[in-house]
Amino acid sequence: MLEGKAYVKDTDMPLKMQVHAMDSASQALDLYDVVECTTIAAYIKKEFDSVYGGGWQCVVGTNFSSFFTHSKGSFIYFSLETLNFLIFKGAAY
How remote is the C-alpha of 57 from its chain's centroid? Predict the structure, then answer.
């Protein structure tokens, strides 16, 4: 696993889920090159879908904007190494 420390910028996730998100990001960065943002995002999304049920979204990159509605208790935005990670479960209407 990477030695870098993740910095949580914003979240409403339970602590255990936050740790899982950051661990999943670290594992993805161990497996893939930092420039493979789409592959890293897919890895994290599939992990969250398998553990917490479908409907998760993941955005990974160095510079992006977003505007979305999420299910309560399912949002985290953090940085690790040189990348930013946005993970959330889409809100049901």
Answer: 8
